[in-house]
Design goal:
This is Cystathionine gamma-synthase. This protein is α/β, with parallel strands linked by helices and 386 residues long.
Length: 386
Amino acid sequence: MSTHDAARGFDSLAVHAGQTPDETTGAVIPPLHVSTTYAQDGIGGLRGGYEYGRSGNPTRTALESQVAALEGAVRALSFASGLAGEDALLRAALVPGDEVLMGNDVYGGTYRLLARVLGPWGITLRVVDMSDLDAVAAAIEQRAPRMVWVETPSNPMLRITDIAGLARLGHAAGAIVVVDNTFASPALQRPIALGADVVVHSATKYLGGHSDVVGGALAFADADLAEKTQFLQFAAGAVSGPFDAYLTTRGIKTLGIRMQRHSSNAQAVAEYLAGHDRVATVYYPGLPAHPGHELAATQMSGFGGIVSLALADGATARRFAESTRLFTLAESLGGVESLVNYPDAMTHASVRGTELAVPDTIVRLSVGIESVDDLVADVDQALASL
Ligand SMILES: *Cc1c(COP(=O)(O)O)cnc(C)c1O
């Protein structure tokens, strides 16, 4: 089945897109191509367009076809990490003097890349609460950005932005609208169908899904921007290696069922936390009290696996994060195993003291696919120990 069977359902595409059985052997799983170079039938006589591993690799092509199919994109590109993909996109789409209007709780590394790497090259940055479209409209009216960048649900506060509304505002100002879809994954949310121009992924998280591969992907609604970015992927070379691409493809095949379990487990954990008197606030879009709940219910087909909570003060939050047993204290998210993270000193340490700083009372949970009773029992014992 090729990516042309776009009418197939999500899970069929996840399993089959880019995974045509090998023509010579019939192998149902296409081989992992490690070769860095390809035999030519006479000078320039390429068999299938492959020449050198940086410009193209069949295992990487398979992953790119799979991601494009799942995001409803014209094309996808795979990178060595999420940030490598972001860097290629930003440098392909922007020139010095351009401005990026960005959400106020994006991934810390995205902010760092823009503020500290691309800033000195002349890209400017403004930050706004993207979940407040009036604030976005006011910021755009003040000065039209070249690019609008949002994460929804956001990290770690789980704010929800109306992607279709944001795309309308951005496009009216001539901006490229980028959605980091790492938290929802295409199993729960398809930004291109809602009007986004580019979808960004840290494939390290839910796409890979098993905490054993670092990778990134970009999916494009527009072939020209895809082409420009592909040139940078080739010219600068931050491609995913074949084994990484293979692992990511393998992970994506179970994305749909994993996201269902992540979502139902996270819902149970969030509901438990919301009823606990030691917890000040629970941030989870699946809770009716969450300010983005109704929007998330229409824009997403599930609420995802990330739950954040606020405790009474920073010291209590740190103690909680160090008291879980099944939730492992570690950075990252999106794997089958549950993780607990203290953003202020871990994932978001690089934005401490900036306009993106995360309150020191916040703990973020990446709720895995383990038995839900064990997960609830674990947060219960951690809260009891405070
Ligand atoms: C992890 C992450 C990134 C960065 O991806 P890497 O694979 O670590 O480079 C970008 N956006 C979000 C939302 C992330 O969680």
